Amino acid sequence: MGPNMNIHFRKVTDLLEKIARALTRKPKLVVSIAVLLLIPSILGAAATHINYDILSYLPQDLDSAKGQALLEEPFHMAATTMLIVEDMPPEYTHQLQQAVEEVPGVSSAMWISSMVGIQIPQEMIPEDIRDIFFSGDATMMIVQYDQPGASEATMKSIEQVRRLCNEKCFLAGFSVFIKDTKDLITKEMPLYVIMAVVLSSIAMCVMMDSWLLPLALLLSIGLAVLYNFGTNILLGQISFITQAIAAVLQLGVTMDYSIFLYDRYLEELPHFDDKRDAMAASIVAAFKSLSGSSLTTIAGFLALCFMRLTLGRDIGLVMAKGVVLGVATVILVLPAILLLMDHKIQKYRHPALKPDMSRVNAFIIRHRKAFVALFILLFIPAVYSNNHTEVYYKLDQSLPQEMPSIVSTNKLKDEFNMASSHFIVMRDDLSHSDMKKMEQQLEDLPGITSVVAYDKLLPDAIPDFFIPDELKDICKQDGYQMMMVNSSYATASDAAAGQLDAMNAIVKSYDPNACITGEAAMTNDLITTADKDFTVTSYLSIIAILILVALTFRSIGIPILLVATIELAIFINQGIPYFTGTSIAFVAPTVIGCVQLGATVDYAILMTTRFQEELQKGHGRLEAIQIAATSADTSILTSALVFFCATLGVAAISTMDIVSDICLMLSRGAIISALVSIFILPSVLAVFEPVIAKTTLHWRTPRPVRESKAVKALQARRAERAASLPGSTPTQNPETASEDGAPQASSAGKH
Questions:
Q1: Cβ of 588: how many Cβ atoms within 10 Å?
Q2: Residue 586 DSSP one-character state
Q3: Are 457 and 475 in contact (CB under 8 A)?
Q4: pTM, full prediction
Q5: What DSSP assignment string belongs to 443-489?
Q6: Rounded Cα distance, 588 and 529, in Å
Q7: 167, exposed or middle or buried, with CB in 10 Å at 0-12, 13-18, 19+?
Q8: How far is residue 437's CA from residue 446's CA, in Å, rounded to a whole number?
Q9: For a disulfide at 603, which of 268, 407, 450, 677, Cβ 3.0-4.6 Å?
Q10: pLDDT for 527-569, tens place per residue?
């Protein structure tokens, strides 16, 4: 570090000390400003659009995304639902069709009466048309909407269509699935937050020695969560997955920072006569530590922004922003809350669960080589199971199967043999003979149940003008024509993927610019894109954290050892579903990897930093690691228990597998990371300490510490008071407080 860098560092430190002193002198003002900021935050959160369509996050240069855009404009078919009516007379369905057409936002409702009337017997209707609308005692109506499938207008229209139906009507389609997902999230979201707050409060009350301290910490985190949700309006929109898990993740990830600040405050209290000075010193110390520690977590989330699937960018930006706002709230607002509540926090103290880990750590250090061998051996099954855990991409698999949209989809599959529907968009100037050949080739493919196309509805002997305009507009618009190909293969299955490849080869041979879209095609692209993205983001997050840890410790060996230890915990966590025979939602591994990597690296940095401090004090290698482990274990256990409780509660009550999977793995990951940090990491650090010493600058030799201006000024004031009151120690009744709620004398004795 050169002289210019030292000067700059001193200026930053002096500025930080001035800010910290100012914050602690006016705690009521700080809290008032923090509360006022909730007004724009709540308004911003309410105005932020929530996107419930995961497929909309696909790269827009893919054929499936291009085809979906064409279905939206000019065909106005991006929002298309199928209304199944069972065991009802044709008159009922005809009246229902007319009523549905009157619903605001519905562009068309097509049924057989739109083309041939309801008086004509089914057997006299052309077979191709009859097969579209009838199956046994059931009939199907095609309902189209003016707006895209995930829009608020379409959601309202779907709700009104449902109100028109009786119990023998079933509305199916991807837009209906989105509607049910939205309703479920809206219903369960408050329960997620309540469960996370209640269970994490219980965990903190058990591990901390005051009944009110958890309230103070949760108030600070609650402010940070609301600030984060309010600033999401700057992003335009966020996904429903992000909305569902962001608050819980932010609580779990940033709780460490709040605990660290308070612990540092307790450490500083005995050294200051005024608790506000102790808090100011804590702010400076916490900022230096948290700014480095939080960078690793932020880097893990920002790695998601490099995914082509922009859902990663959505989650990454919101969570990275949440960590930044969490640190800012801990540094700027939490000190004021703690000062204002300090007397009550001390008044309502109770015995806390703080297990003595010294004997456990002595055992671990004695058997350090065995634990290192275990560390190496565990990698083999952990990596294998991690790589072979089954992942599902079928979106409706993550929802309760009794949901109306799922029941209707199953009806569509069972009665009309439509497990999935593919839409082909191509130019409309292909010859009639070419179209017939292509249709025949498509029909001959395994799993194809029917092909609906303009040429199939227009036999050679029937003039074009005989085809009703409603049906013609479905098939042809603005130089494009659309075909609907129904399949018996389920979305996201290997059979559907192979079928799409075969279809693509056939269609491209007639029109190289043709696009195949639909839920199955887009999900297939989602699988391909996500697989590549997850690999890239995993490597990027590891590289980013390697670099940050290397810069933090000025070391080559430490980042390799720490990241290897953390990755073992992640591999174990993500590999457990392989042994239990369960599958996990496709976004879970990416979210788990980033969150667990970012959170666990805090544990590793905490223990490694303390290990280095003890070595620099002159302790031997084994004595230093035992002291470091014993001092760090309580913080690790507290943090892990809070994170475990917050996420486990959400996993237990969520009926959405995609949310439940992520939270269950996060809760399990918190425990696994804590166990690895407590049992494996100390042994790794102790055994490889000679290597660390050779690859790290200033590892055993402390760097010179500059005494700050604030500390010098404080020492001068102490000397003046001591001189004026010889033989006495300044004290003050802790009940006496300044105008801002801060006693002028120390209440450190109570701590």
A1: 25
A2: T
A3: yes
A4: 0.79
A5: HTSTTEEEEE-HHHHS-TTS-GGGS-HHHHHHHEETTEEEEEEEESS
A6: 15
A7: exposed
A8: 17
A9: 677
A10: 888 888 888 888 888 888 888 888 888 899 999 999 899 889 9
